Amino acid sequence: MPSYIPASDAAFREWIESFVDYAGAHASELGLTTGNIAEMQAVRVAFVNSYLADLATQAAAMTATEDKNEKRADAEKVMRKFVNILQVSPQVSDPERAALRIPIRDKQPTPTDPNAILNIIPPKQHLGTEQPGLVVVHFGPNPLDERRNAKPKGVAGGRILVIDGSVPSGTANIDSLPWRWAGDDTESPFYFKAPAGGIFTFRVQWFDVLMNLGPLGDPVTCAVTA
Known about the structure:
This protein is an alpha+beta fold. It folds into two domains: 9-63, no CATH class; 114-224, Immunoglobulin-like (Sandwich). It has helices at residues 9-25, 27-30, 34-88, 94-100, and strands at 124-128, 134-140, 157-164, 180-185, 190-193, 198-207, 213-216, 220-224. Strands 3, 4, 6, 7 and 8 form a five-stranded antiparallel beta sheet that branches. A three-stranded antiparallel beta sheet has the order 1-2-5, with no helix packed on it. A hairpin with a 5-residue loop joins strand 6 and strand 7. Helix 1 runs antiparallel to helix 3. The mean pLDDT is 91.
């Protein structure tokens, strides 16, 4: 026989409050004493107070997570800027770069075939939209798992393009759409800020160390809340 007590906390709250309210209003007809009603009221109040406190804690944790994700996006953008500065600065030695735990560039790079990037399979995408006003663009061979999403050999990073809205049905040449540059990133994911929300479509292409561009990947669309 199925339990008459709801499984979820929200449904249980509704059930116990309805039960105790009715029992309290009809105690004499139901043969219940004042003590019986008081006992039910006590456990009802204790549960509801604890339930509401738990909801508040969850909401606070969600807000804290969203704030952390936004602060990390800002921090990564700023730190990458200074890493790029320090990587090319003649005042910074390779041991100092190693101490900072940043990549040490090859001072005599191997000549790059400008056509090699054209033969590399374009990156796939996975768009994260859990946080309002932010799209997390995971790009690479395996964007669903960043631990297994290393760039292919010969790739320096990804260029992210975006258009507002989705690709119109029946578009014969999606390259002709008004794509705009969203940013370049040497590592996945890329953070795209859209504080007003909306629908956005992204495409990503690889670039090499000389900024030769590879073919564009398939478009992926997402909806972002404000």
